[in-house]
Amino acid sequence: MSRRLSPVLLLLALLTSTLLQAQLQSPTLPKHPFIKYRANVLHYDSTSPSMRQLFDKWQRVANGDGGNLNIVHIGGSHVQAGSLTNTIRCNILGAYPNLVGPRGMIFPYSAAARCNNPADYRVHCPQKVELTRNVYKEYAYPLGLCGIAVTAADEFTEMDIVMSEPRVDYAVNRVVLLGHGEGGVVPRLRIDGHELYAAYIDNVSDRYIFNLPTPTDSFTIVLPCRPGDKFTVSGIYLDNRHPGFSYHSIGVNGAAVPDYLRCVNFVRDLRLLHPDVVVFGIGINDAVPANFDTAAFQQNYLRLIDSVRSINPDCAFIFITNNDSYRKTGRRRYSVNTNGALAREVFYRLAADCGGAVWDLFEVMGGLRSMDHWRKAGLARNDRVHFTAAGYQLVGDLFTGALFNAINKETSEP
Question: Are residues 198 and 248 both part of a single domain?
Fold first, then answer.
């Protein structure tokens, strides 16, 4: 039996909806003739229970009703670089400056030599550490959600972590260090010259939980490794204990879907984030081989989806299709990779299967051979696979615009 809203409640609902729409303004986009702006939408079934739950929770959190909305973006080098995900993150938090939730999961990429780090936080580690990535054929250390690890063996290895995004205040008051020691190594944090021991150690989940006396935007991880000792860091969770929005980015250069399936602690670590929505952007590396197996690609993705659903059965999924790309065939010679269109079809099938959404980057950027237009416009690199900083910002703004438009559409009626 339905019941009508009272005039007062109806007015409040309309006001709330109007305020929400006013906040979610799509970024102003530069105009390029090769980009299909009309295609910049989320494709989804409006009756999907998981998508409906996502929109409903988004509105509750946006209205200040408490709680956190956790978005986890998983991919390869597009994500590890950080420019794309930080653009999306800043666009969302810019719409809700009073609802900045935890920065969430990060990884100290540049602690290792020749490993690039997102720009929104800096990492400095003068000692040598061993790098392990999920793209390696074999690795000695079990990997988790981040798909990457660094192992310290030098005496008193130190990693400085400094938040450096000027647009967002990421004051941290709790740090969860994900890692495993050999030889009795007990990690510490140093803040303003004072060393802090973990308030709680979870040996089952390999977590060291530090409660900070005052919020901070910088700290040092101290790993006192005696001769023969080792400590492997597989992730760092930054918490501010505030309700709001969190956008976690998980990326490993060169990673494909099977590489994440090999991470035995993937589910264990993802449980810490408890995602409300997972944005999947894995696929550009899967589709490199000429004999790209779309059936295997789809089945691998379904296994990864099942892993997420083992934590949150109601989790929503947004699939970002592969961007158009080229293969290098010789010195300064490239040929278009037609597998991008095949992967695109798989993403639509996955969304239909799990009640998720598709953001069709392949179509938005202009379809087959469009990457060369992006390169000539200074938006893509000469490798014709990756974008420039300006290109990643544009892709992030386009994605945010499609997301905001969907939220406005689905939350505009009381």
Answer: no
Q: Which CA distances in Å does 219 have to 10, 195, 205?
A: 48, 10, 23
Angle made by CA atoms 358, 133, 122, in degrees to the nearest 5: 85
Sequence-ordered strand ranges (E) for 229-375: 230-239, 244-251, 277-281, 316-320, 326-330, 333-336, 357-359
Model-level pTM?
0.93
**Per residue in 351-367, pLDDT tens?**
999 999 999 999 999 99
Q: Residue 23: what pLDDT?
A: 61
Res 5 pLDDT > 70 = no
- Is there a contact between 391 and 379 (Cβ–Cβ < 8 Å)? yes
Helix axes 83-95, 389-410, angle to 10 degrees: 40
Determine the residue type at 187: P
In this structure, the answer to whether residues 222 and 113 fall within a common structural domain is yes
CA distance 51 to 357: 8
For residues 99-120, average pLDDT: 96
Same domain? For 62 and 164 the reply is no
Alpha helix stretches (DSSP H) within 150-286: 257-261, 266-273
Looking at residue 329, its amino acid is T
**Alpha helices by DSSP H, 234-273:** 257-261, 266-273
- Give the residue from 241, 265, 287 where a domain finishes: 241
Q: What is the pLDDT of residues 220-271, one digit of tens each?
A: 999 999 888 999 999 999 999 999 999 999 999 999 999 999 999 999 999 9
Run of H or E residues at 142: none
* 351 and 288 within one domain: yes
Task: Indicate the pLDDT class of residue 329, thresholds 50, 70 and 90.
Answer: confident
Question: According to the model, what pLDDT value does residue 333 have?
Answer: 87
84 to 100, 270, 335, 401, 409: CA distances (angstroms): 19, 21, 25, 13, 24
Q: Where are the beta strands (DSSP E) in 25-77?
A: 42-44, 68-75
The pLDDT value recorded for residue 412 is 80
In a shared domain, residues 204 and 337: no
**According to the model, what pLDDT value does residue 413 have?**
61
Question: How many domains does the chain contain in total?
Answer: 2
In a shared domain, residues 280 and 197: no
